[in-house]
Target: DUF4403 family protein
Amino acid sequence: MRRILLPLALLFSASHAASAIEVKVSAQALERTLRAQLFNGPQGRYYLRGDANSPCYVYAESPHVTFVQDRIVVRVHAKSKLGTSVRGTCLGVSLTTDTDVSLIPEAEEESIGFRDARIEKLSESRELNFILAPFLSHKVPAQMKVNAAVLMRQLLSRSTETTGYALALDSLKLHSLLVEGESLVMDADANLKVN
Model:
């Protein structure tokens, strides 16, 4: 009986032109996206200055995403050697800090976007902050952006193997994104097809 009811429920829900859905996204899912799209260099680092072979460098690593009130908070660990490169050595100062930026999620057609980037915590070094501030307020929000329709289509592409039914997402329109407790709640209209 269960095997018959599930396909019927799927067919009925997919027969409407567009149906409202609610999807909850965890902080860990956003963190995995950020790691895959930005912190994908050697040892999970993103170099703002230099590279793994440079004597002087600035890099961010270990992104951690949490939800605080209505905002998404991204904490990164930053390490730097600021100074002048002389014979393969950096003459200067080494700095290490944790920095935080908070963002408000925003629905952008099929994508989860972010706005109102607010730097919550920087280092005590003006030189390092000069490098970190643009990274936190521009690069991090841009790289966290996720096309939800593409991800859903990827998940559904294996539906025939796992359920025996070919599920396809024809359209997705995000209406709102809100932080509610431990989830980012996405309200959307979607059009699914079942074969």
Q: What stands out?
A: The longest helix spans residues 126-144. The radius of gyration is 21 Å.
